[in-house]
From TrEMBL:
UniProtKB keywords: Transferase
Superkingdom field: Bacteria
GO MF entry, a single one: transferase activity
Name of the protein in question: Family 4 glycosyltransferase
Pfam entry (one): Glyco_trans_1_4
Amino acid sequence: MRILHYNWVDPCDPAARGGGVRIYAKALMDEQRRSGGHDCAALSAGMVYDLSSRAKPRWQACGPGRFEFVNTRPVAPSHAEFAAAAQIANPATEALFRDFLLQTGPYDVIHFHGLEGLPARVLSLRRDFPNTRFVLSLHNYYPFCPQVNLWWQERAHCSDYDNGARCRTCLPVAPNPLAVRRAYAVETAFARIGAPAGSWPYDRVLRPALSAGWQALKAVRGRKPALPAPDRPDTAAPDYAKRRAEMVNLLEQYCDEVLAVSDRVRDIAQGFGVTKARTCYIGTRHAEAWGRTRPRPLGADPLRLIYLGYMRADKGFFFLLSALEALPDQTLARLHLTVAARKGPAQVMARLRGLRPRLAGLTLHDGYAAADLDRIVAQADIGIVPPLWEDNLPQVALELHARHIPLMTSDRGGAQELPGTRDLVFRAGDTADFACVLARVMAGQVDLSGYWEHARIPTGIAAHAQELEKLYKGAQ
């Protein structure tokens, strides 16, 4: 089969943007080529721009089997052009997408790993390519939420957008789309002169400068809610309810498959009106660890907790700090905490240092690579996955679960579906409930036999590729 995979970020992005979705998409394409003999191509959009504002949209090859759109709209990721009309329709980009398919196709399948960076109406091109199946995976909630993860003002779960009224004050500081495009243009120019992401000029000069500029802008504007910047042709205030309705209609009308990466995501999507959404758990190369590891009893003293991922509010890291800080000294003295995450802001690191004297031990890793994971988790008794948002299916949960490390998870998102029981699930954002679950663990009141007996066996990337092939062919 000829398969086109779309994601806003290139699978080989030297700046490693795009998080776990980029890593997953690359692994999937590699497996489809290896085991299925399929011809896979990758397309990205919304991040490459020329310095001239008059440059026309075009597409170009950026590596073997990899293509990118240049000078198109909307800008990616979604925050860069929050709820702009171009996220729904942009005739120039839609025409370019059609030309790209005609010039590089035909494709049997186009697998969209999201729609950021493209106007959603490209889905209507399904009518022009009747022999191509359109498949979309819901790795986030972009079709329903321009902030992408139902996370209001970077501080709270959004369960009701009030017919779009809350969206108007969603971003504490809205990026200027024109400024973002210019920043991308400078990045593109650096790459063309031999200084791409990962090079000394980029990492030591450009990236710190752009980051400092953004932080300074946030400081100047403070935390005052702002509307999207009106520096674009479509300056009318966004109609958030209309945006959601049109996105849902496009998915329902033109996608052959809408794949939710967990049951929770499926239920949320169906609640928003995507009735055809079905669950298709993603595969992971970490699934191989399931066969070489075994469950361990929870009887250690101190109990060794581990947190993997990002030091971010939506991921629940700040909540975790608050929950631990609220525990009595005698409890903390029986806990060892390992954190494998990129170093956070100074105030966050200060809170971690404040916990150190009260804990039995504290181990910090400034991020981690897949090759180091077995070593990092070797002594872990239990993993902490505490998202405050409806995290679709955290990669870190799969990494720990595949190694038979039980998970204490919040009741939001897909991680809670991996254990075989709900004994270790606590209410998201509830420090008292977190403490109760942890107390049961430390008292030896959690029976892990049912937890593992009914646990979801992680799907390997090869098995996942085979399942997708059946879906691509409409066999399921």
